Amino acid sequence: MAHFLWFLFLLLSSATACDRCVHQSKASFVTSVAALTSGSCGYGSFAIGLNGGNLAAGVSSLYKGGAGCGACYQIRCKDPKFCTSTGANVTLVDHNYDNRTDFVLGFFALLDMAHDGMARDIYKLGIVDIEYKRIPCVYEDQNLSVRVEESSQRPYYLQIKPLYQGGQTEIVGIDVAEVGSSNWSSMSRNYGAVWDTNRVPTGALQFRFVVTSGYDGKWIWAKSVLPADWKPGEIYDSGVQITEIAQESCYPCDYGNW
User: Fold this and answer.
1) What is the DSSP string of 165-192?
2) Biggest CA pair distance of the chain
3) Which keywords does the record carry (predicted)?
């Protein structure tokens, strides 16, 4: 009996400590890049630079009210006649409202997923069986950046969009303060990946990003991001990058490489 309880404990422990959980679902496709870049996350044309144009829309459980924007996934279709065993790495940039599939994939992702010459055959199927897993986003030599949106009006209103978020987490909160000050003001998620506040500190600005980490949250402190004369439409380097891995609950875990 003691051995059984120990084995059960190991199973439950494994089920709550996975960096990679493989999920079974379906995917559909679009051929227009604009159909995804103009989507709910608000990335616009900047989405093309997030993952070489390998973009996707995800259902509500993946979109997470906008917190899932920018997340990276490895997806492969399950028919070896049409698809490679490695699949495609994609970045989530839009909300998929069609619950028949977990993902809507852009055509560049489809090209990566397919054997040579098979992409159009897969597209004609309309919906295909897939398996997928969350993977860390990697931006070589690129820090987390903050774009000041055009609707911002210094010094009364600030709207920002984080770009190039690494790791395998979600940004679930952002605070802003003047550089050198401990008087933090919380920002609100306006929509998708876009955050705003009408309580804008004066001077140069620092940010604290709250990200999921393991099963808890973690602060990522960017000590000097926006200059005092920040301008709408500009992108500013935060000086930091997010590398944390948030875990999922599943059994068994996936430890292999596709």
Assistant:
1) --BB--EEEEEEEETT----EE-EEEET
2) 68
3) Secreted, Signal
